[in-house]
Amino acid sequence: MTVTGDRTILDDQVAGATVYEWMKRWEAKLGEFATGPGGLLDLGDGNELLLELRTDDYDHVVPAVNGLTVEFLRWLAQLARARNDPDAEKFARRAEAMDRAFQGLWNERVGWFDNVWADGSRQPFFSAHLFDLLGTSVLTGSQRQAIAAHIREGDFLGEFGMYSISRKDTVHWDRLDADWGGGGCYLGTPLRTARYLYEHGDARRGWDVLERMGRLAEHFAFLPQSPMAEEPAEFRTGGNLEVCSGAGLEAIWFGIFGLQPHEDGSLRISPAPFNPKIGRATLAGFQFRGHRYDVQLQSSGYRVWLDGKSWARKGYAKAVTIP
Asked: Which of 144, 208, 302, 307 is deepest in the core (most CB within 10 A)?
């Protein structure tokens, strides 16, 4: 919808219902699990509903799932209002009620959200899955900073990228189960995490993640689905070439070069500060709504071209918006 400005995809028919109706059905399906405190989702003790970890405990009230559900409900409410759907306020009320309960999972001492189990006990489960919340509206500024602070050596970062379980989590870290259980990470997670870090002004950490992932290029002809984090190897039971490698392109386009397309057709450009390790760099031929955009990063600032014609020259602290 952002790329085209056209929302008619919501009315496309798929297996007897529109895309929008399937979204509403998904909201109802999620509601079947809203049996936790304050209406939080409780997935029960079968973690096959979520991530196939070999270790126990990533089940019942999982914070990443609940935070992402709040974001989904907020988005669904916006779509419903635009369609004059009377269910819009129901979705909005559920989102905010769930958000209040979700905020109660925050563990200030460790800077993470707690998992809650059937007996009411709670403690943090340090899964990289939680980094998906960095791309949502559900975190406060201080929560975002505290969660991002875990992206460091000895915690989530390895020489060749990111661990899916923190090395500090001695109970659940599993070297063999690379994609979600410890030794490495499903490729899409670190790449989109880098994008979120850039988008929220944390270019230093964003580059730290991307630089480590980039080391894979010295050892692979492709980006594997589940690379290990401490050696140039892959989790062999995973797939080889994955569409999630596109998240790396998004980290470059929307992170390093700061492209921010909007559904009204405008494009805001606000690159990350100049990085000497990257040096002078040009993104050429970005296509959006029938126009071509080029952005060049220089030590003194950046330049923007629209359809081959110079549009702006700015310092890094100043954004450009093209209607």
From this structure: 302
Helix residue spans in 83-156 (DSSP H): 88-103, 141-148
Q: Do 229 and 301 share a domain, yes or no?
A: no
d(CA 122, CA 109): 13
Residue 240 binned pLDDT confidence (cut-offs 50, 70, 90): low
Q: Residue 310 is which amino acid?
A: S
User: Distances from the Cα of 17 to the Cαs of 12, 26, 197, 232, in angstroms?
Assistant: 8, 12, 37, 45
Rounded CA gap, 134 and 194, in Å? 10
Specify the pTM: 0.94
d(CA 291, CA 286): 8
Can you give the length of the chain in residues?
323
Q: Which two tokens stand for residue 127?
A: 């899964």
Q: Domains in the chain: how many in total? A: 3
**Which of 8-22, 125-139, 224-238, 243-257 is predicted with the least confidence, judged by mean pLDDT?**
224-238
Q: Give residues with Cβ within 8 angstroms of 138, minimum separation 6.
A: 67, 70, 71, 99, 102
For 18-43, how does the pLDDT look when each residue is reduced to its tens digit (9 = 90+)? 999 999 999 999 999 999 999 999 99
Which residues span the domain enclosing 199? 137-256
Counts of helices then strands in the chain (DSSP H, E): 8, 14
Domain boundary among 256, 286, 312: 256
Rounded Cα distance, 299 and 287, in Å: 25
Tokens found for residue 50: 């979520």
- Residue 289: count other Cβ atoms within 10 Å of its Cβ: 13
Please tell me the distance from the alpha carbon of residue 269 to that of residue 291, in angstroms, as a whole number: 14
Task: Identify whether residues 146 and 250 lie together within a single domain.
Answer: yes
Q: Which two tokens stand for residue 312?
A: 């702006």
CB 287: neighbour CB atoms within 10 A?
9
Query: Mean pLDDT over residues 213-242, rounded?
Result: 84
> Within this chain, do residues 179 and 240 fall inside the same structural domain, yes or no?
yes
